[in-house]
Amino acid sequence: MLLKLFWMTLKIGLMSFGGGYSMVPWIGSEVVDRYGWLTESRFTEMVSLSGLAPGPMATNIAIAVGYEQAGLTGAIVAALGMILPSFLIIAAIGVLYVKIRGSKRLQSSLYGLRSVVTGLIIYSALMLARANGMFELTGWFAWSQLIIFLGSLAALMFFRKHPVVVMIISGLVGIALYA
Amino acid sequence: MRQQEKQNLWLLFISFLKIGPMTFGGGYAVLAVMEREVSERRKWLQASEAADVFSIAGSVPGAVAINSAMLIGYRVAGLFGAIAALAGILLPTFAIIIALSAVYLIFRDQPKVEAAFLSIRATVVALVVYAAYRIGRTAAVDFPAILIIILTVGLLYLGRGVIHPALLIAGGVAAGIWIVRIRKRSGKEIPPKKEEPVYDYMI
Question: Which of A67, A139, A146, B133 could form a disulfide with A75 if both were Cys (CB 3.0 to 4.6 A apart)?
Fold first, then answer.
């Protein structure tokens, strides 16, 4: 179990460009479909919780999953797995300390990488929206979700509100609407 | 270990421990805070070096805040420095997410908590869309880049569960190098980015 957890987070950690927003669907498919550790709705809850905590989303989700599966040890194993790939790469860069920044090859690989990561993050958003039933567009609930989504996006994008503030206000709106 | 080295490790740990909680909710201001701490206050790096560090940290896998902390720790005090900085930046996050999980497990069945989270779920989608918008702004510099974005989403959607993201990442890097090379041969360069990208979407 711990070994599986470590292996899974190691793989995700190695691929998590873009702060892990891009990796949300893959963490989901691993823990829900492949290992059957969580139900889909429990996973969605964890994603929301991770958004509420400081720190990178993917690492937070991994820590939460590890904690639920195997307590504190699980949480530590998950965090180590997520960070080990970056740590090794950083250590290698530190040792070599080549001046990477200006390198043409890096610039041109970043050119493609950024686009793919954007695509991955858009896909993450699509999958999360689908899990929330936002695309059904039938009935009061789906519409209310859509309106909350648009309101939150406007608050982040145009009014530049801090994400935590937006989350808290959203929580209050939820209590008013759904309780 | 000499006294000076020990003190450096401790300072690294403490500095990043303070920064850790500021990565709250996606940590949009964390790099600025980090720069102030490491270059102005502690004088570990010069401002231009700090920009280098953030740029490298955003180009390798993992979160930019954590990567930056490790890289700065490494520059200041070697491998142990990297570990001290990592422990510092990670500890608050780690404690908070576990506390949140534990508290949530107790109160999740309360109708009010359930209702609040129904709404927060939709807000999280907005958060992810916003992240996509921020990185997309630095990514979508020209037509081929936009094409890669659309292709990625399309392939992922059609090949659900079949196409591995690692494959797409590798493909994207290869396509990027290839496109730039073709461009160069025909005498065109990649359009310069309008601004130095700020990697806060990576946190």
Answer: A67
